[in-house]
Write a structure and sequence with these properties.
With 151 residues, this protein is of the alpha+beta class. The chain is built from five helices and four strands; from the N terminus they run H-E-E-E-H-H-H-H-E. Strand 2 and strand 3 form a beta hairpin. It is globular.
């Protein structure tokens, strides 16, 4: 299976059946994100166990890429420490922003299914859709109160 097929299949699957799509009560951290370009709106919730993300969930509405990215993000960061989640955010941002090393198998392998988001790079106008959940997660971890905007 090539990257284009993986991208399509993973996006379709996670959009049709998003994982962790719910309000998380109680949540230790929460942030809201908005993409003015296509109207995506997300709230990301996190419950901590010390410095570890015990649970991550989201709710909202958006395009297929936005919802799928939030679903992938919520699965991938569960169990990570706050520092590991921040490092993963940087890695995903580099992947989507066009870092040449991002397609190195050594870089992609730890991302798991999240690596399928690399296909978004073929559609530059959709990169903001894919990064919204990740930026919103970071805002939640940093306890930022202002809504995140990808504009």
């Amino acid at each position: 299976m090539d990257l284009a097929d993986l991208y399509r299949d993973v996006i379709v699957d996670h959009n049709r059946a998003p994982r962790n799509f719910r309000k998380l009560v109680p949540a230790d951290r929460e942030a809201q994100g908005f993409n003015a370009l296509c109207g995506d709106r997300l709230t990301v919730y996190a419950r901590l166990d010390g410095e570890r993300l015990a649970e991550v969930a989201f709710e909202g509405s958006g395009c297929a890429i936005s919802v799928a990215s939030a679903s992938l993000m919520s699965e991938r960061v569960k169990g990570l420490t706050l520092a590991e989640a921040r490092a993963l955010h940087r890695q995903v941002h580099a992947l989507l922003a066009g870092d040449a090393d991002a397609f190195d198998p050594v870089v992609l392998e730890p991302l798991g299914k999240v690596a399928a988001l690399a296909g978004v790079r073929e559609y530059p106008s959709r990169v903001k859709c894919a990064t919204l959940a990740w930026h919103t997660l970071l805002a939640a971890l940093e306890e930022t109160t202002a809504p995140v905007s990808t504009e």
